[in-house]
Fold this protein.
Amino acid sequence: MEFLLSEEQLEIQDTVRRFLDKNCPSTRLHEYFDSPEQLPEAIWQGLVEMGVPALIVPEAFGGLGMELLDLAIIAEVLGQAAAPNPLLAHTLATQAIIHAGNDAQRETWLPKLASGTCLASFAAAETGGDWLTPAMSLKDGLLQGEKQHVCHAQHADLIVVALANNHYALIEKDASGLSIIPEDVADRTRPMASLSLDNCPAELLSNSSESSAEKVLNTALVLLAADCFGGAAQCIEMAVDYAKTREQFGQVIGKFQAIKHQLANMAVDVEPMRGLYWHAAYAFDHEPGAASRQAALAKGHLSDRFLHVARETVQAHGGIGYTWECDAQIYIKRALFNYAYMGNAGLHRKRVAELADW
């Protein structure tokens, strides 16, 4: 089977890439990295104007009704630029409402999420770093407890909270009993916070089910895998460019065999990753029986390889690769985020085996 992106999909990628080239060059990226408390308004509004938050929202609710692959290829470009943006958590909240909300909830929130007039976040992890089996539950319409590692929580108008038994609940930003505590994070392009919930009023998404929870999780894993591919591809480009210009012992270091082998191994690691995340995104909409396994496989493998390639990129740069001024440190921190968020590679490789009945 031949599986390639359509001309329309390639144009979508090129449009986002041109936008980021203009609005998120290296100098601007470092400014964002130095001020993580600020929402990257220019980037987010640009994505909104291009219709990115609306891509997978059904047309009946003001969206474009496109597939997850169309959004994943944009996540790849965002990862390649290490662009600071709240799209990941916003999309997970959107997916939760699409698949777990009732008609009234979808009609209330999806048009706002699609248009970007409402920014949403997603809260899954609890104490101990458990991403996939939350224990928090809704009692008499109130939530009690703590959620950790919530992306852009301080900027969100709406937060979708993952609960026990595959349920979800909505919290609005001005809810009583909600406290948002910023966390000290490595990847400053995606700031996170903890939520302290003290009898905080919340609205249950009434169509929550195992199937809806599976779709939200698979969305997260596919988008993270796509981001990993983009980031890893950029790491190779940075390492190659540096090897062509850095001189040592009277010649550029790219002429040394050890560097050539290192760069070649990085390329061999990265290029096959593209098809893995493409298939995972395709399976989400077309192969439901394989979707969970492919999403877990993509996230587990790509997050592991991105972290490896990012480390190799720092090594190829030598001492400067460890400095704040070098872009390499931004990518290795993004790789660490992608590796850990929604469960590490080991967790998802175990799930792959379980889903395959190994």
